[in-house]
Amino acid sequence: MISPLVRRRRLAQELIRLRDGRGYSSAHVASAVGVSRQRISELENGRVVPNLDLVAKVLKFFALAEEQRQQLMTIARDAQERGWWATFAEEMGTRQALYADLEAGASEIHEYQMVYLPGLLQIQAYTEARIVMDRQDGATYSLARALEARAGRQLVLKRPDGPTYEVIIDELAVRRFAAPAPVIAEQLDHLVVVGHERPTITIRLLPLAVEIRQHAVPRSAFFTYRYRDPQDPVVAAVDTVTDDLVLTDEADVNRYLDLYARLREAALSPGDSLDYLAATAEEIRRTIHNG
């Protein structure tokens, strides 16, 4: 399944490109197909499920060749799909549902984690600790459903056609415990095993004391996603305290691609990173043992 969110953004980009190429305003297109300007704006902002009849009318007005029309109608149908996460979004947490959507159909996922260990590689005990600690008063999501959803999201990395995945973990996320010490040790052990045994997964550690090119400083965790259709937009998702920002504008996304490249240059090699994580897990266990 291809990410419906990404296909909505792709459809929006294509419609804007076609309209601009013909010199039409959105009001002109709306008048020509007999709908309000707001309906066209909704199609072009890519944030609502597209109405297939409306898309068909707009494409007919643009007088496209049949092959191009069929291609865009396929994208519109993809954008209408509902993934497994859509049914349980409130129970599993809307932020998790968003990332499950972005992960669907991805061919490559890159991630930088500043304060947490990466969700797609978390053990259940770590995930549960974070859900309990982060849960706010009035939250509607279910702990059991959230744990089930995280496990479901992790399956994307095990599929034969799943994405390649690379994560850069800031040393801060390892040294400042976001869960009880025994859980952190177990989680680091898991990362070491995964890093050694699964060739499509690469784990890198970014040391606190390292110098990053041009002194670039990441302000938050972020993710980038590429998809098998080269015409689908490259997506950047930025993790903030209260919400997540999804970017598809090329200039915006390129800023995060460039930042990721700089962080990658400064990070340890995969082998040295796994050695560091293994040594840190042993250090934590010794500290626990010595009281």
Explain this structure.
By secondary structure, the protein is α/β, with parallel strands linked by helices. The protein folds into 2 domains: 4-80, lambda repressor-like DNA-binding domains (434 Repressor (Amino-terminal Domain), Orthogonal Bundle), CATH 1.10.260; 84-290, Endonuclease, Chain A (2-Layer Sandwich), CATH 3.30.870. The protein has helices spanning 4-21, 26-33, 37-45, 52-62, 66-80, 84-87, 89-92, 94-103, 124-134, 143-154, 171-175, 181-197, 250-266, 270-290; strands at residues 106-113, 164-170, 201-206, 222-227, 235-239, 244-247. The chain has a 6-stranded mixed beta sheet with strand order 3-2-1-4-5-6, with helices on both faces. A hairpin with a 7-residue loop joins strand 4 and strand 5 (235-239). Helix 2 packs across helix 4, helix 4 (52-62) packs antiparallel against helix 5 (66-80) and helix 12 (181-197) runs antiparallel to helix 14. The protein is elongated. InterPro entries: Cro/C1-type_HTH, DUF5753, Lambda_DNA-bd_dom_sf. Pfam families: DUF5753, HTH_31. Residues 15-68 form the HTH cro/C1-type domain.
Tags for this entry?
Transcriptional regulator; 56% helix; alpha/beta; DUF5753; six-stranded mixed beta sheet; 2 domains; DNA binding; 291 residues; Endonuclease, Chain A
